[in-house]
Write a structure and sequence with these properties.
The chain is an alpha/beta fold. The chain has helices at about 10-25, 50-55, 115-125, 150-165, 180-185, 200-205, 220-235, 265-270, 280-285, 290-300, 325-340, and strands at about 1-5, 30-35, 40-45, 60-65, 85-90, 95, 105-110, 130-135, 170, 190, 210-215, 240-245, 275, 305. The radius of gyration is 21 Å and the shape is elongated. The structure holds phosphoenolpyruvate and manganese (II) ion.
Length: about 350
């Protein structure tokens, strides 16, 4: 339930309303000030509360809106119907993810394999316009016999790539025990598809400050996914980006997953959180990545995450879906055409010499 307060309401009265809501209905009121209005979110079991009774609490209440969905803090209404932004400081400056900002490009290998490959890839994707380098240090692999990532030493290599390129780092945290170590290097913590339901991990990343990219589990409904995000926000961290990476469907003959681009307009109506699309895991086939990346921008994504490897044929994981740096260069030129057409592309400022 959301209580919209009239503009100009005295602070004392807002506090009185909060107090009364909490005393009478045993809910936790959460005040949030938007550009034009103040709203109070009622956190708790509000299913049986009559909105008319709440309306009577104060003449300063403009409207009482029931939130029918189980998620509250992630709901669009909770942010006054507007989109929220996630701003991430990087050595090259702040980068903002959000509906009213240019599309943010994230690129890099599936896993960090060695220093030269991660530094080389970082410099190449930066030159093509990426703002973040991705790369797994801890890899969630289907088989225990597949390459599991180099772990802590790979985090050191990501730090080197950050220093060399000035790009922000996004890397996956798989285990609560590794969180502090990963958060020391990462500018954005990735929660992978396989861990979207790991509620202890969600609570832990919610209780720290680094922004989180939450990938959709392969069989998660949109409500499941938003409830997972709700865990992070409920624990105190509102800096969450939702990343669609393809879901499991019956046909896996030509694609690894089915990239669900319809989530973009659906999420827009349900949540204020920024959206990212990962066409690499979404298709599993490098030849399909450019088409789906362009489609994702046209659909309105706020960010794209694309796997790029200097030599995909030799990659230790996910080679078949990785682009080469040259292919990524070409792709960003194509993406720019679509991005500019919808006014979502950062226009490079020429360097004056
Ligand atoms: C990844 O991005 O490295 C990854 C493992 O993806 P997902 O969790 O979507 O499978
Ligand atoms: Mn991968």
């Amino acid at each position: 339930m959301i209580v919209v307060i009239k503009s100009g309401t005295p602070e004392l009265e807002i506090n009185r309303i909060c107090q009364e809501l909490s005393n009478t209905w045993n809910v936790t009121p959460e005040k949030s000030a938007g550009k034009h209005k103040i709203i109070i979110g009622m956190i708790g079991d509000t299913a049986d509360i009559d909105p008319l009774l709440i309306q009577e609490v104060s003449p300063w209440i403009e409207q009482v809106l029931p939130v029918e969905k189980p998620f509250k803090r992630v709901s669009r209404e909770y942010c006054h119907g507007e989109a929220s932004e996630v701003t991430v400081p990087t050595p090259n400056g702040k980068v903002t993810f959000g509906e009213n900002n240019p599309v943010v490009l994230i690129a890099g290998p599936c896993a960090v394999e060695n220093e030269s490959m991660i530094v080389e890839t970082a410099l190449r994707v930066k030159a093509a316009g990426a703002k973040f380098i991705r790369g797994g240090a801890f890899k969630p692999r289907t088989s225990p016999y597949s390459f599991q990532g180099h772990g802590e030493s790979a985090l050191g290599l990501l730090a080197t790539a950050r220093e060399a390129s000035g790009l922000g780092i996004i890397t996956e945290v798989m285990d609560t025990a590794d969180l502090d170590m990963v958060a020391e290097v990462a500018d954005i913590l990735q929660i992978g598809a396989r861990n979207m339901h790991n509620f202890s991990l969600l609570k832990k990343v919610g209780a720290q400050d680094k922004p989180v990219m939450l990938k959709r589990a392969m069989a998660a409904t949109i409500d499941d996914w938003l409830m997972a995000a709700e865990y992070i926000l409920a624990a105190g961290n509102a800096n969450v980006i939702l990343c669609e990476r393809g879901i499991r469907t019956f046909d896996r003959q030509y694609t690894r997953n089915t990239l669900d681009l319809s989530v973009v307009p659906v999420l827009r109506s349900l949540t204020h959180l920024p959206i990212a699309i990962d066409p690499s895991h979404g298709t599993g086939v490098s030849a399909l990545v450019p088409t789906m990346a362009k489609a994702a921008i046209a659909a309105g994504t706020d960010s794209l995450m694309i796997e790029v490897h200097p030599n995909p044929a030799k990659a230790l994981s996910d080679g078949p879906q990785c682009l080469t740096p040259d292919q990524f260069d070409k792709l960003t030129q194509e993406l720019a055409v679509v991005g500019k057409a919808i006014n979502r592309w950062e226009i490079a400022v020429p360097v004056l010499t």
